[in-house]
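Why do we care about 3D structure at all? Because function follows from shape, and shape follows, mostly, from sequence. That is the central idea of this module. The next example makes it concrete: a single protein chain, its amino acid sequence, and then its structure expressed as tokens.
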Amino acid sequence: MLRRVNWTVRVAVVALVGAYIFAFLPGYPAVKIVAFVVAVLATAVWALAERSETSRKRYSVVLPYTFGGMTLACAVAAVTPQGGPILVLAFIGALAVGRQANVVTGSIICGLAIGAVALAELASKTYAWGTVGSVAATVLGALLIGQNSRTYRLRAEQAAELLARSEQLREEQARTATLDERTRIAREVHDVLAHSLGALGLQIQVARAVLTDSDDVPRAVELLDQARRMASDGLRETRRAVHALRGDIPPLPEGLAELSASHQRRHGTPVRFEVSGQPRLLSPDVGLAITRAAQEALVNTAKHAPHQPVEIQLDYTGPGTRLVVSNHLAENGESDRPPALVTVNGGYGLAGMRERLLLLDGALNAGRKGSDWVVEAMVPQ
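And the structure:
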């Protein structure tokens, strides 16, 4: 919007100066015509350069000299009789030179323009040095204003670049810290598993030796109880470490598609998965809860209705996110009572899924609908 306003002002100024010169001032000296044509051409080149960033770079070398020619021609025309209005165009040209060129280049260009004005005044033999001084002061003032504007713009661009680099550096530091943390957690998971499984294996070997060598059943039971406690402790520590890595879980549709394919490969059961609506970004807690619900439902289908078709639908069309797992029941299947398998996340069947969803203000419904067993999980996101 601001660029359009700037261009409107520029074109309006050039048009108004041209109209005033050729409509209200007597005579059409060639120098005025040339100066106005050069100003129009310079404005056109400026328009081409401002179309895009690529065009700006392409014309960056040409623009200072284009505006230099505009400044020179309009400054010379300004010292001719009744040429004062063209001084406005000389001001615009010198201003643009200051904005486009460095200090040395801009000073040389404007110096040449002032020199040309002086030579034109000498050639005319009118010796109106006051007019020459006014033109020189106007050109130099415009150059200084343009240079200040250029310096401000360059500093703003440098500040923006530094800010972008700073943001990039912070992102790299955060990414490095995250990778370091994940490496540490992975190491802890490995250590926990290695220690727990190793100790568990030894404990079972000792229990086996007690049974086979001394037939001491109470001692063997005690050792097995210790092994069970060791397994529970190791599993708890492992879950704690893995829980911190759940940011690595894939997007929910992708994860459920892989889960469906894995269940079909493992159990030889036809599984159809589909997504309705536009997928939305969910929090890790919500995505994990829905994934666990799908896993639990699939485990129960494998127990109570093996080899029967399963349909999984992930629905984003409503105000919340809904998961529906439908399993066709065998005619002699135990379908009238809810399954009671332990969940893969350590919950307790449907009760564990329902409690997990309630923590997220969600809900779980499970029951028979016709010849299907349907599990429906809903979260308000």
